[in-house]
Amino acid sequence: MVRLADLVVGEEQAAEEAAETASQFQEFLREFRETTVLVPVDDRGGLWSADLGGIRWIMTFSDEETLSRFLLLRHEDGEREYHRVLGSRLLDAVVPAVPGPCGVALDPGSEHGAVLPPVAGVVPDRATVGTYTREGDEVRV
């Protein structure tokens, strides 16, 4: 039998955990914005990115070692040209310049990998998935 008191305690614990997770993400976002990341260059000279579910993801890396490991996982020689870009510039200027929804993948393929999705509070409002959906573009999320 489930008691009402147990449900209330469970709801309070879930709310506390959600608040802690949100706080941790905000701290991560603040640190990312203040950090210079490595953004590899693709074969055409643009920023290396991948499309997944209708969203373009710019690949970024925290250091050369993590980038090299990722390239080796892809059976590349472990070297690729890259730009050093401040996280805030990437989120505030580069992402909105991409046609369509765009997010940032940090250290993909690593155990510390993270994503910064194109949502309010992460990228400018004009670059969120919701903006493109409201304008009628097909976005599969």
Notes on the protein architecture:
With 141 residues, the chain is an alpha+beta fold. It has two domains: 1-34; 36-134, 3-Layer(aba) Sandwich (Trna Endonuclease, Chain: A, domain 1). The chain is built from four helices and six strands. The chain has helices at residues 4-33, 64-73, 87-97, 129-134, and strands at 36-40, 49-52, 55-60, 82-86, 102-106, 114-116. A four-stranded mixed beta sheet has the order 2-3-5-6, covered by helices on one side. A hairpin with a 7-residue loop joins strand 5 (102-106) and strand 6 (114-116). The radius of gyration is 18 Å and the shape is globular. The mean pLDDT is 84.
Q: Average pLDDT, to the nearest integer?
A: 84
Radius of gyration: 18 Å
How many helices? The count is: 4
Assigned CATH architecture of the largest domain: 3-Layer(aba) Sandwich
Helix-strand category: alpha+beta
Percent strand equals 15-25%
Number of domains: 2
Order of helices and strands: HEEEHEHEEH
Q: Quote the distance from N terminus to C terminus.
A: 38 Å
Q: Low-confidence parts lasting 5 or more residues at pLDDT below 50?
A: none
CATH topology of the largest domain: Trna Endonuclease, Chain: A, domain 1
Question: Helicity range of the residues?
Answer: 40-55%
The CATH first-level class of the largest domain comes to Alpha Beta
Query: What's the arrangement of strands in the largest beta sheet?
Result: 2-3-5-6
Find the count of extended strands (DSSP E, 2+ residues): 6
The coarse overall form would be globular
Largest sheet: 4 strands, mixed
What would the keywords be for this entry?
single chain, 141 residues, alpha+beta, Trna Endonuclease, Chain: A, domain 1, 2 domains, four-stranded mixed sheet, two-stranded antiparallel ribbon, 4 helices, 6 strands, 20% strand, globular
